[in-house]
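Page 47, continued from p. 46.
Same chain as before, 209 aa.
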Amino acid sequence: KQWYQRRVAITAGLDNIYTAMKPVVLDLGQQPTKTNLFGAYTKRVKNNTHTVICMSPIGEVFRARLRMFPALINCCTIDWFSEWPDEALQSVAKTFLSEIPGLEDGQVEGIIDGLVNTCVVIHQTVTNASKQYLIEQARYSYVTPTSYLELLGIFSKLINLKKEELEAARKRTKTGLTKLLNTQDDVAKMQAELETMKPMLEEATKDTE
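Result:
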């Protein structure tokens, strides 16, 4: 039954393709046969399909992929992305951090700005240290936009972790205060009962004497 349903779905999809491609084939002066219709459809798909592949040039993996798949160089348009300017670093950090629950409120605008500046300074400091490392040790230490995004991810995790710790501490403090208040009420009640029973205790003491 499932096989039959899949076959019906495939047949319906092919019929839609043939119907849509018939005017195209006729404009090309060809006969609207199934072969010509599907060939025109395949050609249009190839012409309009664009694939974006993002890879880091760091390490041996990138070179191995180029050796295994030469089409990555021969048949692709390569865009090399250089260092992000300060404006881009600030914009990305602000967008990323503003999505963290509890920081999207406008009342904490100053906090977000401080975090953004901190992230930018950390990234730029590491970048400058990597350049100095290359000069002194003749070895590369790559700092890429991916590194910056990972830094923002770490910031996000730390913020959420600290928020959970603060929330847990707040709950413990609230529970402790509640118990103290309850204990205070109980002590007050006991003192009131003792005051009430004080004449009876004094009388009982006299009778004992």
